[in-house]
Each structure stands twice: as structure tokens, then as C-alpha cells.
Amino acid sequence: MLEGSIGFRARLTVTARQILPADMTALHYSSWTPKGEEGSGIDFAGTSTDVFEKQPDGGWLLSIDNPYGVATVD
Question: How many CB atoms are located within 10 Å of the residue 63 CB?
Fold first, then answer.
């Protein structure tokens, strides 16, 4: 989905809306917007739901990424 943005070297801004932790797992709900260079034609935004798993070193690993947010993925 974001492959075209990467080609334009877009900067992706992610704003966390809600984080629901449960032991070693967390559900992250956020909004995102890519910003490309002037005239790049990048003009869209979305929401995502992601699942993170806590690692032994204390960091978090993204294990499931749904860039469509709460919408149904067909």
C-alpha cells in the first residue's frame, strides 16, 4: 500500500490514538499520513491497527500490521 510513497521518499507521520496493552502483547490504533515533496501527488491518509509483541530485551516487535484500521480487509 505504501510502496508508491516510498518511491517519492515520503515522510510518514504516525499518531497513536490508543494503545491497549495485555501482558506481552499490545494493540496499537493510530492514524497515519505520508507527506511527499511538493508536487509529488501524495495526498491520502488512513488509520491502522497493529499488534506488537514485547521482546526479551524490553523492546517491541511489530507482528501484525493492518494499514486499513478497523475496516474489514477482504
Answer: 10
